[in-house]
Amino acid sequence: VARSDDPEPIRRQGDRFAVTLPDEAREALRRLAVQYRDLLREEDPSTDPGVARLFPPAHEDDLLANLEYERVAHDGLLAGRLRNIETLERTAGADSLSEDELLAWMAVANDLRLVLGTRLEVTEETTARDFAKDPEGRETFELYRFLSALVGVILEALPQP
Amino acid sequence: MSDQVRVVEGATRSMKVAPVEVGRPVDEEVHEPDFPWIVIVWNDPINLMVYVTWVLQKLFGYPREKAERLMWDVHTKGKAVVSSGPKEKAESDVARLHAYGLWATMQQDR
Q: Model's pTM, two decimal places?
């Protein structure tokens, strides 16, 4: 149980954000960032459902329009995701982040939630108990929950848009 | 013009401010060369409710109350119309929503 006087691990400090995450959490983020970049390099929406979730179709049932959207939008979306990964890797050990850097952290964390959540086929009711007989799934779900908590902490720290 | 009004009605139906148009010709859609497009966000079990609200505020500049209402529609009704306009704007909005990981599609508002 957390002590009530524990400061938030990410909190606003003037124009910037102070980060007091433990080293293990920073290391986990760095590792995840590397794995995420490898995934984006090695897979595409047709080969991995998690990657497909990151690049959804823009039209419900119009194949040609979706191909056109993919042609126009995919490279820009991919480049943005790679930039966010690079920012997270570069700043994972930092004690202070700019708002843009913190937004990159949140984007990577949420992207990873989409990939892991899709792999785990989570529903709104999924809990750790669902993985009682699946140690690997349980471990992935713990990462998913860590990333969910991180997104929540970042949203708390950010000013109202 | 009336189609734009209907889009606004669709996008703001939960706000109870939908304008009512009187005397719209019934065959108007036939002569309308370019229908406005609507952008729909679909429910998914992964994106956090607070995150969806934040993204709608951030991308569209909606006040928190409106963004929360749209998020709640997504959560409870399965989808919500979050923006509308010409095709190019809808395409750009969909791509921006995709960049934030929301599940969004666009369609002509017929």
A: 0.85
